[in-house]
Specification:
The chain has helices at 3-16, 23-33, 45-63, 65-80, 87-99. It is mainly α. Helix 1 runs antiparallel to helix 2 and helix 4 packs across helix 5. It is elongated. The mean pLDDT is 78.
């Protein structure tokens, strides 16, 4: 893989990471569609993909570090005091509510 191909895949990964599309799929499909000369079965391809995703994760951590810190902090402060007092408390509460499993149908219904 050339430096330009790797840079293209890196830019594509960064541009599509926050959208609901498969950035890993791009890294596999685009080289095939563009007829690039390297094989995906090459032993260096998987480590390249891993480093590509680690780079994206690192960039997101740098960009959103305040939010990553605000969620556990807000969760702890929301647990200590009942009312939501800061945006971090609300963000933590929203994360908990968004990841809670749904109520099974009929579980809390009374018979009529």
């Amino acid at each position: 893989m050339t430096v330009w191909q790797a840079a293209f895949l890196g830019i594509l990964q960064g541009a599509t990471e926050l959208f609901p599309v498969s950035s890993l799929g791009h890294a596999v499909i685009i080289p095939t569609l563009l007829h690039w000369s390297y094989k995906q079965s090459d032993p260096t391809f998987l480590p390249f993909l891993v480093l590509l995703h680690l780079g994206t994760s690192g960039a997101l951590l740098v960009l959103y570090w305040r939010r990553f810190v605000a969620v556990p902090t807000g969760l702890a402060t929301a647990h200590i005091r009942a009312p939501i007092g800061s945006p971090g408390d609300g963000l933590a509460t929203a994360h908990v509510l968004a990841t809670a499993p749904p109520d099974p149908p009929g579980r809390f219904r009374t018979a009529t």
